[in-house]
Amino acid sequence: MKKIKIISIVGVLILAILSIIWASKPRPISKNTKTVTATSNSDLSFAVLGDVHENIDHFQETINDLYTINPVMDALILNGDVVDQGLDEEYRSVEKALEKNEDLLPKTIIKNIGNHEFFDYKIETNSKEQVQGFINKYLEFAGEKKVYHDKWVNNYHFISLGSEDGNSETMNSVTAFISTEQLEWFKEKLAEKYEKGKPIFVFLHQHLDYPNSSWVGVQQSEELKEILSQYPEVVLFSSHTHRDLTEDSVVLNKPFTIVNTGAVHYTIIPDSSSENGFIRDRSFIKGVYIEVNGNNVTIKGRDIKEKQWIFSKDISK
């Protein structure tokens, strides 16, 4: 009899522990949840997320939070390193999360390529054929024909650039390569339906420059800056560095604007006591939310874990 009681108690304890674990996992919120308190009357609203790295728990928290901020958002941009490796199972994992949250997500989801889309950690250096194989997997996932592509959302131009090589004999594992063909395409797209003062939104996973660092984000950084300097209307979103979001995450008057998106997977925090001078804080989840009214753009940095705004900056060209 005692044995049966002990087994029963153990069983109850196991069920209680499992219930706690289940309750703590981030899950899709109800579309009709009372936590949805905000909407937007703006001409355009969208969010930009960098470096998900197939961290589905953090991604789910982010989707839930963005829905509470604005359940009628126009677009979501996944700005590269959506997966940690360019493997079929990782793409399927992210696709499953997107499908599960279809009712909480905008109809327009733009998926950009990063450097981790060129990775299989079992492959030390990609051959030319392997590079193309990784690109093909990305294109299938993104529903695009090339790693660079564009879309008009609510009559605003969204232009995505992307590296055409990675972790190979011809390109290292972090820097973006932008071909002459892509640069010419970019010039054409910036000029397409151009209106002086009207914002143009450009996305590239890697950064153009990184102050006080020898880390080169884009091999053709100078060429891109020369093109962009002709369009002060451009707001360029970059990810890749996993830098924390602060007021300095928005850089004005280049003459274009540069925005660091923060990272969903983890954030790099300076720490003088650590061996490398920094730590990777995996508890942080950061992203940016944007509202546009006419030619006026408001960029907000979001601490998704704490459900708080970090900063808000207004831009008018």
Automatic annotation (TrEMBL):
It is an enzyme of class 3 (hydrolase). Its EC number is 3.1.4.17. The keyword Hydrolase applies. Keywords: Hydrolase. Residues 45-243 form the Calcineurin-like phosphoesterase domain. The keyword Ubl conjugation does not apply. It holds the Pfam family Metallophos. It comes from the Bacteria. One of its GO terms (molecular function) is 3',5'-cyclic-nucleotide phosphodiesterase activity. Transmembrane segments: none annotated. This is 3',5'-cyclic adenosine monophosphate phosphodiesterase CpdA.
